[in-house]
Amino acid sequence: MSLRAAKTDNLLTKILATGNGWWKKNILFAPQNWIRFDFNNLVSDGEKAFTSDPGMLRELIPAGKEVYKFLTSDPTAGADVREAFRLGVLDTLTAAEVNALRAQRPFEAWETTTEHHMRVAVNRLTSFFTSSRWNTMGWSKLREATFRYAKYQADLKRMRNGASPAYGGAYWKNVEAIQRTGAPENIHEENCTGRGMGRQGPGSGSIMSATPYVLKWREAGLRREEAYATIDQRAKKRQELETQQAEADRALTARKAAAISRATFGDYGELTPNGNAIRKLVVPFFAWTEVNFRYHANLFRNLRDQLRSGDIETGTAARRLAGQAAALGTRAAMGTSLRLAIPYIAVTAWNALMFGDDEDKLSEEDKRRFHLLLGSDEEGGKVRVIYLNTAFTDVLKWFSGNRAAQLTTEVLAGRTDWQTAAGEFAGSVPRDFANNTLGSMGPVVKVPYTLISEKSTFPDVTDQRTIPSYDMRRVIFGQVTDQVTAELIEMAINQDFVPTRSVGEWAQQAILQVRRRDPESWAFYAIKDKAATFEEEKTGKKDARSAYDAPDAQVLKAFRRAIFKGDVAEASRAYQRLLTFGYTAERFESSVRAQDPLYGIPKAMRREFVEGLAPHEQEQLRRAYRYYLRMQEMEGAGRQLFPKRGIPERARDRFLQRDRTGVLANEIERALATQGNEAEIERRTDWELQQAMRRN
After folding, report:
1. Kind plus residue range of the DSSP H or E element containing 465
2. Predicted TM-score (pTM) of this structure
3. Residues 57-105: tens digit of each pLDDT
């Protein structure tokens, strides 16, 4: 019984591991995803190199050339890179994540016939990954292996020159505990014909130094020839053992350098059993989390020991030397700490001082992530932002470290006070921990939860949004594959689906990693969500599920979005579809009123809701009303665009026979024209807010 259970568990584990492996392969190496993930990994590796060992950056170019030679089976590849391969330095995390190490050319010679045919078959099925020798996986392998080998070479050269390595993500005591193998610890005592002679004893090549021992051996009954023959034999043995010791020292140096490189850039062999199980079953990319936590733990342990390096109190000379060592250790620790902090201080200060207003316009999701602002578009006012997913932020994000740095900068810039900042930080800690814990789950967890709850955990698991029934398929496809693939599938099978991003916006994000955020748009939806939550808490009323299941719900959403964006072509297409669904003027007018950010909250409770908002949330409310003005301009146009409810069929047919897309275009253009006067927008925003707060 127990054996059968073990086999069942093993089979289940294999199924889950295989499914996660295929999913990760798509996420990491599919062309539409590869640039983004490789950019993130490049940023992380670059930050580790700059923080723990800037000297290795000089080795990157020659290391890249050597790694390229080795991966292409070039016979001119050097001995060091071959030794690095043997010691696991070139085994990168990305390739290991999808069990793809054996797909690299150096491993092909070890394949069995069956394995060879299986590899060829799989390659044909996944030709978009493996269409050439240098596919996305191959380039990722080259990039990661170059950083790892550069670190290996930098420390190898230091130790060969008698200097200490830069321990990086390896704890120095663990590295120094590595012992040599294959050579005696003290060859002099084993080789010398007499004790205490050192390198001037017999076997050193000095006849004069050998003479006293020859005389001694002759007194013991040995002939002169026998005595000198014994010296020659021991000299040869000494040379052999010295060669063995030199070889062992060389191997020891290589093993230490390899251990440091693997610990700095990630070693799959060091994953804990629990971590490996979590990675296979529920959190596909848990390996990165565990590796980064261990890297920083060792980095800070090394810093601690560097600061303690002078704790010796024996004798005046010893205290003087200890003081010098402590000063050197302190300088080294401060240098590492400063290099660790510089990128974050610089980026956070840049955002706050150069684009402080744009920082306020970002969503909570964007603020939680380490990001670089590039200013706003001149047309449209969208904020341009790049995510910088470094190794340190991968650790800090679990404890709201990124938010703490941002809030500190805002306080120093005079844009908020310490009390407000402390309150915002305290509120973000549990939310960030929940988002990183549950948000990192793989499809095996997310898909069943989404189907059962009909809720989306993205972007905030503490504020989940109801998924409309028409959008459930796309969400599930996105969880099983990726968002780009899901949108392409939905576009192919659903004529009413409209992507939220244009091709240009998608390309800008996929290639340049630049995301464009509409501050008024996200503020509008954020306030609508908060208002819905407040309404439910006060009245017990929830959003009607029927609204999400209405046949025309998806088209109506696309119609409203096109009006908000001023996209006449898309609005006209959606408008024609709404007519086929029997949409009426009354529904349109009701839909316009429902776009009021505070719609649904009884007027008697609206003041309580607004006064309960934090200062930054009240600013969100104003931006939400600015966004609402675009739709509010369409109020009263329903009777020109749609037939009235309940009119005779003949009258309805006559109404539909007229092409009214020109009327729609004129209404949208009129609405856009009113958005050009900033003073008028502010006046109308104030007026709409006052009207929304009135009790009757």
Report:
1. strand 465-466
2. 0.78
3. 999 999 999 999 999 989 999 999 999 999 999 987 776 776 654 444 4
